[in-house]
Structure formats: structure tokens, C-alpha cells
């Protein structure tokens, strides 16, 4: 296992200080390793996540070569040549586990921003103390954007939140964590070959969830209630530094409410079918997302009102070192449930790789088991081919 930094590198270096997992403690399960503490329904803090992963690596004696950056991978007659800043490796099989969230996506029009506006991505943001006093525009309203908007607004810097596609989700539903319901009802186990449009499913943003000590729901209504101003998706920036917001905010929010209610209907059906209606709170729905009558369609970024922009607009993987013909035109690895169309190459840790939960820590177990079965039979097959 080659790792450019230390074990749990991304958690050590690319997350904001106050981040807590949005998955409850019981749900961070790795093979043979699960939470045993007093707070199974709590949410790990960042240092706890680092400790959890580092401990797992120690317990299983993971053969990790830290501080070893892979700089290129090429195919050879017998397998693959892996070049690193610590020397070369040859291998017959290769698992790409370099993460799905390596590079923060920033729209191309960001270069039109007036020089007076500072920008940070969610990978660079640590805490409000980093920011100048004054207004902040947070772009993106999925789990990262809403959490960061909440924290910054509470620090006294007025936040405007630009809202694109997102999926609203109550933290607790009918007395249980939403993730408990999704896990129990099999939503998270849904397989990649069972969904109608897997390419679309792989692009769906993360649920708008946050882990907090009081298990409160952090949706757009919660943010509006503390004074965060909602605007539509940031569609562009004009030459003279005016932000243009799409007029679709109301539709985006209605669609998000609809998707949330569809999930809650599914949960209610499952609870009824499995005899849970008696032991749990009755079904209920959240009030619709509140959107003001005519949200602004523009904002002068050169006026000094906005001092900082936080890009919470998603991430993409970095395969700049992968010199194999396996990338599609968007730079994503082509694969069938993690089996890459290059003999002995596998992918793991990307959204909906084999299951809906593949993007979660909890998804690694099942995916790793399936793929290692395939990998082992590939190695056996290639060993017999070499003997023959
Ligand atoms: C903001 C955020 C919040 C999240 N919250 C949750 C949550 O609450 N619960 C949950 O279950 N999941 C959460 N996730 C998803 C979680 O991060 C992933 O499921 C998990 O990190 C996947 O682990 P991984 O090892 O596949 O990828 P990563 O954790 O990204 O690890 C990839 C590793 O590869 C290394 N690497 C990359 N390139 C190279 C190279 N060229 N050479 C050598 N090493 C390299 C990196 O240093 C890194 O350590 C969150 C993700 C983000 C971005």
C-alpha cells in the first residue's frame, strides 16, 4: 500500500477543524473493526476519525509505505510499473484507492472575481478565524456547504448561500437516525447494477446531513432561521465582477423536498412491512423549504460586501499519474463495479462503485470483499497462464 502522506492523510490535511462525520459511530464499520464506545449514535470528530483509521491500520498491520507518492503507472508485458518518489515497483495487479475527492471543483468563471475577494475551497477552509471580517458567499449547499455556512454565519460574518442541486434530509426521523433507517431498509446496499441510470446515480450530491452533538437537522430552513440568505445556483460572473444567480432556487428546493419525501415514503413503507410502526414515532413530514418571493439574481462582488467566497462545489479525483487508457472523457476511471478494463486493475472508494454506500467508510468492507475475490481469481488465472 503506497500512501503519499500518513495513514488517514485526507482527514489530517483536507478537512475543516469542526468537521464531524455525518455517519453515526456505529456505522463506521471496517472489516472486523467497529465502534465499541459509549456513544454509538454520536458522530466522530475529526481527531477521532484520524485515530479510528490509524488504529485500524495498526490492528490489521496494514503494510503501508507512507510518504511514498505514486507519480506514474504504466503497463508492461507482465503487469504494471509503478513509479514513485521512493523508487519503482512492479506488480501484476493494481488497486486504485487514491480517493474520489482529491481536487476541489471550482467553476472556470472564478478567474473573473475582483481581486478584493479572497477564495477558499472546502479543502483549504479550516475555521472562520481564517477569514476577513465581512460578508461571505458560500457556493454549494450539500453537506460541506451547509455545515461551513452555518459555522461562518455564527461567527458573525453574514453568509449568502448559493444553492444548486442538493438533497434535503432530516437528521432524525421517527426517533431514529436517518442513516439507521437507510441502513435497515437496505437503501445503502442497493447495487450499482440495480439502478436505472448509474452514471447519474454516481453524480448525485451527498445528503444534506451534518453530525452534531444535539442531532439537529441542518437544512436550508435552519440556515434561513439564523439569518443566512439563500440565492440560486451561481451561474456566472460578469466581466465587471457581478455574480449571476440562476432563477431556479424555488424549483431546486421543491425538487429537493420531493426527493426527501420520496426517501421518507420508502422508509415508511419498509417500517410498515417490517412491523416497526408500533414501536416507533408515527410518520411525519418537514415543512417545505422556505424561499423568499424574489431571491436576488445578482450580487456586486466588487462592492466590498462580500470579502470571501468558499467553493463548496464538489470534488473530483486526480488520476494525472495514471498512464493507462482507462479514463473517460471526463477523466474518470471506466469500470464495471470496480473492475477496470485493464487486466488486474481495480478501483475502490468512489461514489456508488458497487453499492450506494460505496462512498462511505462503511461501504469499503463489502466492496473490498467482492473485488478481492475477483483479484485473487485473476492472480490465480494469470499464474496458471504464466506456468503454461
Ligand atoms: C468533506 C467530506 C466529508 C465526508 N464525511 C463522511 C462521513 O461522515 N462518513 C463517511 O462514511 N464518509 C465520509 N466521507 C467520505 C469518505 O471520505 C470516503 O468514503 C473515504 O475517505 C474513502 O476512503 P479512501 O481511502 O477510498 O479515500 P481517501 O480517504 O481519499 O484516501 C485516499 C488516499 O490516497 C492517497 N493518495 C492519493 N493520491 C496518491 C498518490 N498519487 N500516491 C500515493 N498516495 C496517494 C491520499 O493521500 C489518501 O490518503 C466524506 C468525504 C468528504 C470529502
Order of helices and strands: HHEEEEEEEHEEEEHHEHEEEHEEEEH
DSSP helix fraction: 25-40%
**Proportion of residues in extended strands:** 15-25%
CA radius of gyration is: 22 Å
Quick one: biggest sheet? Answer: 5 strands, parallel
Question: What does it look like?
Answer:
- This protein is of the alpha/beta class and 388 residues long.
- The chain contains 8 helices and 19 strands.
- A 5-stranded parallel sheet has the order 6-17-7-8-13, covered by helices on one side. A 3-stranded antiparallel sheet has the order 1-2-3, with no helix packed on it.
- The longest helix has 25 residues.
- The protein starts with 8 loop residues before the first helix and ends with a helix.
- The model has no long low-confidence stretch (mean pLDDT 96).
- Flavin-adenine dinucleotide binds next to helix 1.
Topology:
Layout: H1 9-13, H2 46-59, E1 70-75, E2 80-84, E3 87-91, E4 94-96, E5 103-104, E6 118-121, E7 135-139, H3 143-154, E8 159-162, E9 167-168, E10 172-173, E11 176-177, H4 178-184, H5 198-203, E12 207-208, H6 220-226, E13 229-231, E14 234-237, E15 242-245, H7 249-273, E16 298-300, E17 306-311, E18 315-316, E19 345-347, H8 364-387
Parallel strand pairs: 4-19, 6-17, 7-8, 7-17, 8-13, 9-12
Antiparallel strand pairs: 1-2, 2-3, 5-18, 10-11, 14-15, 15-16
The structure holds flavin-adenine dinucleotide.
Structure in a nutshell:
The chain has 388 residues and is of the alpha/beta class. The protein has helices at residues 9-13, 46-59, 143-154, 178-184, 198-203, 220-226, 249-273, 364-387; strands at 70-75, 80-84, 87-91, 94-96, 103-104, 118-121, 135-139, 159-162, 167-168, 172-173, 176-177, 207-208, 229-231, 234-237, 242-245, 298-300, 306-311, 315-316, 345-347. It is globular and about 75 Å long.
Amino acid at each position: 500500500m503506497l500512501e503519499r502522506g500518513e495513514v488517514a492523510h485526507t482527514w489530517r490535511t483536507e478537512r475543516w477543524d469542526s468537521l464531524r462525520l455525518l455517519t453515526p459511530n456505529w456505522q463506521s464499520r471496517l472489516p472486523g473493526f467497529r465502534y465499541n464506545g459509549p456513544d454509538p449514535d454520536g458522530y466522530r470528530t475529526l481527531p477521532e476519525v484520524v485515530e479510528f483509521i490509524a488504529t485500524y491500520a495498526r490492528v490489521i498491520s496494514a503494510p503501508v509505505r507512507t510518504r511514498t507518492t505514486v507519480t506514474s503507472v504504466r503497463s508492461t508485458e507482465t503487469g504494471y510499473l509503478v513509479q514513485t518518489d521512493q523508487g519503482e515497483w512492479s506488480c501484476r495487479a493494481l488497486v486504485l484507492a487514491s480517493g474520489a475527492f482529491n481536487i476541489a471543483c471550482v467553476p472556470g468563471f472564478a478567474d473573473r472575481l475582483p481581486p478584493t475577494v479572497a477564495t477558499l475551497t472546502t479543502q483549504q477552509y479550516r475555521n472562520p478565524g481564517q477569514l476577513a471580517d465581512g460578508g461571505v458567499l458560500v457556493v454549494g449547499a450539500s453537506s460541506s456547504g451547509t455545515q461551513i455556512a452555518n459555522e461562518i454565519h455564527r461567527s458573525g460574518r453574514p453568509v449568502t448561500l448559493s444553492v444548486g442541486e442538493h438533497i434535503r434530509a432530516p437528521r432524525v426521523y421517527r426517533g431514529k437516525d436517518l442513516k439507521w433507517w437507510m441502513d435497515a431498509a437496505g437503501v445503502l446496499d442497493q447495487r450499482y447494477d440495480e439502478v436505472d441510470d448509474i452514471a447519474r446515480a454516481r453524480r448525485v450530491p451527498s445528503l444534506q446531513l451534518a453530525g452534531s452533538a444535539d442531532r439537529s437537522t441542518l437544512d436550508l430552513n435552519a440556515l434561513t432561521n439564523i439569518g443566512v440568505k439563500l440565492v440560486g445556483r451561481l451561474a456566472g460572473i460578469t466581466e465587471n465582477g457581478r455574480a449571476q444567480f440562476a432563477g431556479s432556487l424555488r424549483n431546486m428546493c421543491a425538487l429537493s423536498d420531493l426527493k426527501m419525501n420520496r426517501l421518507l415514503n420508502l422508509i415508511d413503507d419498509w417500517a410498515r412491512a417490517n412491523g416497526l410502526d408500533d414501536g416507533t414515532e408515527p410518520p411525519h413530514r418537514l415543512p417545505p423549504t422556505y424561499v423568499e418571493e424574489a431571491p436576488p439574481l445578482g450580487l456586486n462582488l466588487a462592492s466590498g460586501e462580500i470579502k470571501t467566497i468558499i467553493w463548496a462545489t464538489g470534488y473530483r479525483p486526480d488520476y494525472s499519474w495514471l498512464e493507462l487508457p482507462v479514463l473517460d472523457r471526463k477523466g474518470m476511471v471506466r469500470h464495471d463495479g470496480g473492475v477496470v478494463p485493464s487486466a488486474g486493475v481495480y478501483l475502490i472508494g468512489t461514489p456508488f462503485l458497487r453499492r450506494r454506500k460505496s462512498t462511505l467508510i462503511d461501504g469499503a468492507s463489502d466492496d473490498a470483499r467482492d473485488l478481492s475475490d475477483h483479484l485473487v481469481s485473476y492472480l490465480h488465472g494469470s499464474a496458471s497462464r504464466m506456468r503454461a
